[in-house]
Design goal:
The protein has 226 residues and is an all-beta fold. 0% of the residues lie in helices and 63% in strands. It is built from no helices and 15 strands. Strands 1-2-3-6-7-8-9-10-12-13-14-15 form a twelve-stranded antiparallel barrel. A two-stranded antiparallel sheet has the order 4-5. A hairpin with a 6-residue loop joins β8 and β9. The radius of gyration is 17 Å and the shape is globular. The two termini are 25 Å apart.
Length: 226
């Protein structure tokens, strides 16, 4: 692998989501998720904010309240690039507002490894992400494949994903029923060199073939590149 980055790139995005998934569980509903990522000389710095429009009632009489910056994720990593795939190693600090620490989630720092790539000559894209959270004793692995097709800029993108949570994650009860989960969905978007506008539908379910655990989510957003 090589680790030479030729320029500084900045990506900013914002999306309204009816459900926000994290490790196969819903952490916010009706929320605006906005953030930015800067890459320079192989180093990657990103900030992602979660801003629920309305409060969400959860188990154990806990409530994830509405408002700005109820969760802020700050990531720092290094990206190794190669023709077949890119490998990003780093860490993410998830900072929860006290009023948003629902379902047992709390502020923590986790190690992250992401492998992503595609097939040359096609629009197929794939990624696999591993997160190791020693504080909450939750480890997650999630892999996704997207196959966009269509016209030059407007494309339809079916997507499937499969995730696993550490069966020993006793600190977050919501993960006990989400040891394995599947994600299926489709998106449509307008793409250009500097901006994307997209809409996506995603369903979280217990498996690809069986029924159970279905949760539907819709997202509408935009992405800018500088």
């Amino acid at each position: 692998m090589t680790s030479i980055a030729s320029a500084v790139t900045v990506t900013a995005d914002a999306a309204y989501k009816t459900k926000v998934f994290d490790s196969g569980t819903v952490i916010f509903e009706n929320a605006v998720v906005a953030g930015a990522e800067v890459e320079a000389l192989g180093f990657v710095l990103g900030v992602n904010t979660f801003n629920p429009v309305e409060a969400r009632d959860v188990a154990a009489n806990k409530t994830a309240s509405s408002g700005l910056f109820k969760r802020v994720d700050t990531t720092l990593g290094y990206r190794f690039t190669a023709p077949l795939a890119n490998l990003t190693l780093g860490a993410v600090h998830k900072s929860f507002s006290k009023s948003a620490q629902a379902d047992g989630h709390s502020s923590n720092t986790a190690l992250v490894a992401r492998l992503n790539g595609g097939v040359k000559g096609t629009l197929l894209a794939w990624d696999a992400v591993t997160t190791i959270d020693s504080k909450n004793r939750t480890n997650n692995v999630e892999a996704n494949v997207r196959v966009p097709f269509g016209f030059k800029w407007v494309k339809i993108a079916p997507a499937v994903g499969l995730g696993f949570n550490d069966p020993g994650a006793a600190t977050i009860a919501a993960l006990k029923s989400s040891k394995r989960y599947a994600l299926v969905g489709v998106g449509v978007g307008y793409y250009s060199k500097t901006a994307d506008v997209y809409a996506e539908y995603t369903q979280r379910r217990n498996s690809f073939t069986g029924s159970g655990g279905e949760v539907d989510a819709v997202a509408v957003g935009a992405r800018l590149r500088f």
